[in-house]
Amino acid sequence: MTKFKVLISIVVFSFPVLLFTSCEKTDETIENISESDAAEIIEASLQANAGGLVTNIEDIVEQLVTAVTSGELCDTLYSSTIEEDFQGAKIQASYTSELSYEMTCNAVEIPQTATFSILTESMYSSSRIESDDNGNFTGNATNLQPSSLTMNINGDYSQTGTQALNFMEQKNISSTLTATLSTLQISKQDFEIESGNAILSWTGSTSDETFSFEGTIVFNGGNTATLTINGTTYQIDWN
Questions:
Q1: Is the dihedral of CA 112, 118, 124, 129 positive or negative?
Q2: 3-state secondary structure of 41
Q3: What confidence tens digit (pLDDT) does each residue in 129-141 have?
Q4: Is the CB of residue 82 less than 8 Å from the CB of residue 105?
Q5: Percent of all residues in the chain with a pLDDT value above 70, rounded to a whole number
Q6: 191-230: pLDDT as tens digits
Q7: Structure confidence at residue 170 (pLDDT)
């Protein structure tokens, strides 16, 4: 098993227009999940230390950098298990990920690309959220060759789980987060996400309603990001 350094990071994505829209409610239902609630929950679920999407991105990039450096063979399926616990001031989390990957070389056996799959079981808690989730991340990586300072990631991510919320009142949620990633650029030195974007969807239900929020995301680099919901922007800094 390879133990990876977990970097505090958070995914956030934004395009010129980002729309998160709640499902239409009947007169009998009560709106439990507001757009600001959605922003806070999505932000927490994407934290690197929460075992979510950013964790997976950083882990697979570190794994592939190590694989290239150590001379692992191309056209060979490798697997690895990662187990981490994090106890921070803002969030406490634990996760276990099962990674598999296969690299492709050029004519002189230098790795160029890779396909990968990651299955993750994670739990995290903050002052206002407790979550228990299962994640599935599949994708491909390019720029594996040692001469490249960054690696590019494209892929599809889904995370399904339950959240207990302590906002204005106690709320229990069942939800699914999905993201389609487009050309994320990640540093091979510190595994920080430097740029990239994605399409995002977060859907689910409480005892009173179903909800659906959709939008787009952008990574700003420098451990910062912007989340925009119906014209309202949320500046995120996880330094």
A1: positive
A2: helix
A3: 999 999 999 999 9
A4: no
A5: 85
A6: 999 999 988 888 999 988 999 888 888 899 987 777 777 7
A7: 84
Amino acid 131 reads: S
DSSP 57: H
Residue 22, C-beta contacts closer than 8 angstroms, at least 6 positions apart = 31, 33, 35, 211, 212, 213
Residue 214 parent element (H or E):
strand 210-221
E strand or H helix at 219: strand 210-221
The answer, yes or no, to whether residue 175 has pLDDT greater than 70, is: yes
Phi, psi of 101 (to 5 degrees): -155, 160
Distance of CA 209 to the CA centre of its chain: 26
Instruction: Give the sheet arrangement for strand 111-125, strand by strand.
Output: 77-87, 92-105, 111-125, 129-142, 150-166, 170-187, 193-205, 210-221, 224-229, 232-237
Location of structure tokens 């995301």: 217
**CB 23, CB 237: distance < 8 Å:** no
**Ramachandran region, residue 75 (left: φ > 0; alpha: ψ -120 to 50; beta: rest):** left
